[in-house]
Amino acid sequence: MESNIAKAIGMKYSPVAVVLTDEKPEGALQFKEGRWGCVVSMLSAAAKGKTAVFDRKTFGCLGGGVGLGFGNQYVNFPAGIENFLSTGNKEFCSTDMGKNIVRNMPAIEHGEKYCKTPEVAKKFVDSLPMTEVPTEYVVFKPLEKVSEGETPKVVVFYVNPDQLSAMVVLANYARDTNQNVIAPFGAGCHTAGIIPFNEDNSEKPRAVIGMFDISARKQVDRDILSFTVPYKMFREMESNVEGSFLQEHEWLKVRERMSKE
């Protein structure tokens, strides 16, 4: 499956299809059961041509399990996810269990400071659209590798600021409102997974800008953000490339600038 959008905006990386399936793709990258891994690293690998697969035992980290739609894995987080995201849990880290865990996850003690207080963090977690995907696997693959009969749940674009500008304009191009893109706080995998999954349930879904997750930024180029589109919105945007600003002088000047960098 090719993308008119990707061609028009001159993407460096392939759009990534997120596919829900009960069939495990042969030769796909997969985390080992019980081993830590960042879902965003697999998303980046898919943008570069690889295929990655996840199941309920190989989602890399608890946040990744949440982001991929394998339920509320945060209930299994030691010392409480609300403490980890905010001010930490020194009391827990003084216990024998805590001393063992904090060696590998020092932020459990002092917190990541992404939320001001545990109460704020809890409200954030409670606001997430926790999802149980109906399939055994979640697959990331380059869009061009999507086969006939497969329908992605969402499509993720890795875009620079110029390309992001084009995507925001295109998302609003044929809509009767100008509020068709959101930029929510969340982990990188949330904004490529459950948040756009949830948008897909809407009659007029919105696109989701993401990759603001400081902990995941090292997994992407410094000028890259994600722009994730529910599949039905992706098809809408694809159909609007022809005859749009993407074929006009102002955008072509911007694209020419990108080609010189």
Structural write-up:
36% of the residues lie in helices and 13% in strands. With 261 residues, it is α+β, with helices and mostly antiparallel strands. The protein folds into 2 domains: 4-66 and 131-260, no CATH class; 73-127, no CATH class. It has a 7-stranded mixed sheet. The protein is globular, with a radius of gyration of 19 Å.
Layout of SSEs?
Blueprint: H1 4-9, E1 16-21, H2 39-47, E2 52-54, H3 62-68, H4 81-84, H5 90-93, H6 96-102, H7 107-110, H8 118-127, E3 137-142, E4 154-159, H9 161-172, E5 181-182, H10 188-192, H11 194-199, E6 207-210, E7 225-230, H12 231-239, H13 249-260
Parallel strand pairs: 5-6
Antiparallel strand pairs: 1-3, 1-4, 2-3, 4-7, 6-7
Order of helices and strands: HEHEHHHHHHEEHEHHEEHH
Mind describing the biggest β-sheet? 7 strands, mixed
Query: Which consecutive residue ranges, at least 5 long each, have pLDDT under 50?
Result: none
Compute the number of structural domains: 2
DSSP strand content? 5-15%
Distance between the termini: 28 Å
**Rg for CA atoms:** 19 Å
Structural class: alpha+beta
Q: Indicate the mean pLDDT.
A: 95
The count of helical stretches stands at 13
Helical proportion, percent range = 25-40%
Strand order of the largest sheet: 2-3-1-4-7-6-5
What global shape is seen?
Answer: globular
List how many beta strands DSSP finds.
Answer: 7
